[in-house]
Amino acid sequence: MTVSVEPLQGALAHVVGKDRVLTDPGDCHVYGYDNSRKHHLPDAVVFALTEDEVRDIVGVCRTYKAPLTARGRGTGTAGAAVPVRGGVVLSLERMRRIIAVDPDNRLLRVEPGATNQEVQQAAAAHGFFWPPDPTSARYCSVGGNIAVNSAGPRAVKYGTVRENTLGLHAVTGRGEVIRTGVDTTKGAVGYDLTRLLIGSEGTLAIITQATLKLTPQSTARRTLRAVYDDMHHAAAAVSRIMAQPVTPCALEFLDGAAIAMVPEFQKTLPARAGALLLIEVDGPGAAMDEAVAAVSAAARGTGLLDLTAARSTDEAQALWAVRKALSPALRTLAPNKLNEDVVVPVSRIPELIAGLETLSRRFGIPIVNFGHAGNGNIHVNMLYDSQNAEQERHARPALSEVFDLVLRLGGTLSGEHGVGMEKRDYVARAIDAPTLSLMRAIKAQFDPDGILNPDKLFPLVP
């Protein structure tokens, strides 16, 4: 959809001033894509500084029936921030205040444009942290984390954004400001609209403020590296680790293909290394030896080649730096890769890995697997070459079968990347028709004109 730019520009400029409205295609271009590398050019980009401005911008877009796509830092990988119908991109990157840190009540209030790292730094000054820690923490916005329920390694012990957000301020598609949630860790009044908005990808309302639940920092932390001869033995170890009483604060998985991408790992691993686990345990210092012993006992088993502990903070940080560099490295190696963050029950990870190996061989497409194994959230990277006609022809059919495999195993199509455009057309396989109909009805209540981030989350209606 292309809107009439001049009157829309004038109305937006009336709200925020001309200097915070972009309409030149060259200026707007960069706001038309996210890390999915999909692109649609918006007709205008507007920068908000306050909740009142967001409300008034929504009102303008309602008046002009202009699609409105909220955007944080564009680090999402599913195309949720891509303005598929043009219209207006509302950038929240300048709404980045840390409004308050309240250590007595273990909460922090923040605007959506602040980065995850800025929140962590503000919380750390008081001895706390916010558990969600995606790989892109230095760059991604809190609003973006909330929009797709993006979590990261620590979710295995501390939960996702949904478990660590107490309340929200948001503007609905009706242009109404709503307040959801409470400032307490318990609350039983009304529907839980906070958890509804989290993961809704800006299709219901635009978040203008969040109250985050903070967690005290641990006094001690240990990092272990377990190396196995193949992926199946490593996956079986994940199940054993998660079945014993000590829950790691992170349990990451890399298969043999992922290891091969990281020379720093290969130099220090046994020759037959086919998979490894990065395991982090935290808690009181006095309990560390016992906790490490329990996790180590569970990690030992058939196929274990080596189990070592980082001897210093620097060694631990080096291990995590390599893990966090893996996804960007794969993107450089295979710009067209399909990166899916599927989730299966932990006990069924071995079946998932076996099924992915079969699909890789059948379709002739390399598949690299890594991710947050402690909660079954595996990043499946299909490294196809779009210049290879056979791989290009097979990529989407192979992806379709990956999703079917995940659903057969009792899993779900996304753990933290969201749906956006990438998985929209597969959602009906995971959600039954009556439930999808109810979700569409909820969308219509929040956004009766359908202007908020259209053509996302749900399969398109013919």
Q: What is the topology?
A:
Elements: H1 5-16, E1 21-22, H2 25-28, E2 44-47, H3 51-64, E3 68-71, E4 88-91, E5 98-102, E6 107-110, H4 116-124, E7 128-129, H5 142-148, H6 155-158, E8 165-172, E9 177-181, H7 193-197, E10 205-213, E11 215-216, E12 220-228, H8 231-242, E13 250-255, H9 256-260, H10 263-266, E14 275-283, H11 288-299, E15 304-309, H12 313-333, E16 338-343, H13 349-363, E17 367-372, E18 377-382, H14 389-408, H15 427-430, H16 433-446
Parallel strand pairs: 2-4, 3-4
Antiparallel strand pairs: 1-2, 5-6, 6-10, 7-11, 8-9, 8-10, 12-14, 12-15, 13-14, 13-17, 16-18, 17-18
Helix pairs in contact: 1-3, 8-11, 8-13, 13-14
Summed up, what is this model?
The protein has 16 helices and 18 strands. By secondary structure, the protein is an alpha+beta fold.
Q: How would you characterize this protein structure?
A:
The protein is built from 16 helices and 18 strands. It has 462 residues and is of the alpha+beta class. A hairpin with a 4-residue loop joins strand 8 and strand 9. Helix 1 packs antiparallel against helix 3 and helix 8 runs antiparallel to helix 13. The longest helix has 21 residues, at 313-333. The radius of gyration is 23 Å and the shape is globular. The two termini are 17 Å apart.
